Amino acid sequence: MKISIVGTGYVGLVSGTCFADVGVNVTCVDIDKKKIEDLKKGIVPIYEPGLETMIHSNIQKNRLFFTTELKKALVDSSVVFIAVGTPPDEDGSADLKYVLNVAHEIGKHINDYIVVVTKSTVPIGTAKKVKAAVQEELDKRGVDIEFDVASNPEFLKEGNAIDDFLKPDRIVVGTESKRAEQIMSRLYKPFLLNGHPIIFMDIPSSEMTKYAANSMLATKISFMNDMANLCEIVGADITSVRKGIGSDARIGNKFIYAGAGYGGSCFPKDVKAVIKTAKDNGYKLRLLQAVEDVNNDQKHVLVTKIKEEFGDNLEGMKFGLWGLSFKPKTDDMREAPSLVLIEELTKMGASIKAYDPVAQEEAKRILGDKIEYGQDPYDVLIDADALIVITEWPEFRMPNFKVLEKLLKNNVIFDGRNIYDPKEIVENGFSYYSIGRKVIRP
Ligand code: NAD
Predict the structure, then answer these.
(1) Section 301-320 average pLDDT
(2) Whole-angstrom Cα distance, residue 201 to residue 393?
(3) 161-187: pLDDT as tens digits
(4) Closest Cα partner for 127 from 151, 106, 105?
(5) Burial environment of residue 307 by CB neighbours within 10 A (0 to 12, 13 to 18, 19 or more)
(6) Beta 171-175 vs 147-151: how paired, if at all?
(7) Is the pTM of this model over 0.85?
(8) 266 is a catalytic site residue
(9) Which residues line ligand 1 at a C-beta cut-off of 6 Å?
(10) What residues does 64 pair with on adjacent strands?
C-alpha cells in the first residue's frame, strides 16, 4: 500500500515513519525545503526519542521518502493524510488555512480515487470544507475523479510518540464511506494485532473526539492545580490528596499531577478552539473557560512564590533554571510555562541562566540572548540566587545537594513540578517552595 502524508512536523513525521515501519510505502511532503533536504540526508528536525533511528532504517529499506512535490507523492497513493499545523487564530479558533491550502493542492493533482484524511486537529465541520476544496479544484479542472474524506485524529504524546503510534489506546476514524472505511481498516491492521481497537464513527463525532480528549486532559490538570492552590491556603498537601483520590478507580491516578501549568502545541490551542466552536454555535462552555483561566494563572504561580521569598524587587538577581521545554522528552517550546516565567522575571530585572537537555537550540531561536544557556544543570547555578525547576526531566530528579549548596548564593529551591521530597530537601538545608504544599524551611 502506498500513502502520502502532508506536513512533516511532530505528527506527520512520526505517523509517516511508523506506517513505513510496518511495511507501508510512505512519502512525506512538506513545503519547508530545508526540512525535506535534511530529512533526505537523515537529519531529523525535531527531538523525539527513537525517531531518528527509525527514520534511517526505513529510508534505507526504501519505504520512506521525502519530497516537496505533492503531485509526485500522490501518484498511486491510496490515502493522503493532512498533518499540517492548525495554530490558533487571533480569536482562538483553529486557523484552517494550512489544511485547506493542502486540500486545494490535492484537488489540483489527484488523478485517481483517494481517501483524503485530516489527521491535524480540526474543528467540527472541517472535513466538509476539505471535501469542498478538493471538489472545487476538480471542477476547475473539469474532471470527474472519485474521492472520499475521512477524519483520523492523532492522539500521540510528544516524548512517547512512537510507542503511542505503534501501540495506540485506540484509533478513531470518522467516515461516511464504506470504501474509505475498508482502506483505513487495511492501513491500520498492523497496529491492531494486539487488540488495540479501531473505532469508526461519523465525521463530526470523530473531529469532536479529539477536542473532547484534550479538553478532558486539560481539565484534569487545571482541576488539580486549582485544588493545589487551595491546599496551600488551608495547609493540606496536594501530593497526599492526589494519592488519596487517585486510588479511587473511578478517578484513576493518571494525569492528576499539580504543577506550573500545561503548555505545548495542543492543550492550550485546542481548549481555546473548542470554546470558540461552542461560542459560534451559541453555547457557552463554562467549564473549559475556567480550565483555561486556571491554567493561565498557574503559569505565574512560581513568580508569586519567588516574590514571597525575595520581595518585589528582583532587580539584579540571578536565577538558575532547570528545564525549558513544555514537558520532558521533547524540544517543543510552544506555550511552554518557562516562557511566561522568563518573561516575568526578566521584566522585573532578574537574569536567568537555563539548562535543558534538548530544548536549548529551540529556546535560542525563540528567546535569543534574553537569557543565558548553561552546559549542564550545575553550570547554571554558579552565583545564582536560587534554583527554579520548571520541566521535570529525569536528570533533575536527584540533585547533588552538596554541590547545589556550594554554587547557590541562597539555599532556596522553587519546584514547579513537585519532583522532590520536601523532607529530603529540608534535611539538606534548603528552603523549598513547591506546588500545593507548604513552604518548608530548614
Ligand atoms: P508542526 O508545526 O510540527 O508541523 C507542521 C508541518 O506542516 C510543518 O513542517 C510545515 O512546514 C508543514 N506545512 C504547512 N503547510 C504545508 C503545506 N501547504 N504543504 C506541506 N506542508 C505544510 O505541527 P504538529 O505539531 O505536527 O501538529 C500538526 C497537527 O496535528 C496540528 O493540528 C496539531 O494540533 C495536531 N496534533 C499534534 C500533536 C503533537 O503532539 N504535536 C498531537 C496530536 C495532534
Answers:
(1) 97
(2) 38
(3) 999 999 999 999 999 999 999 999 999
(4) 151
(5) middle
(6) antiparallel
(7) yes
(8) yes
(9) 6-12, 29-32, 35, 83-86, 98, 101-102, 120-121, 154, 156, 158, 265-266
(10) 26
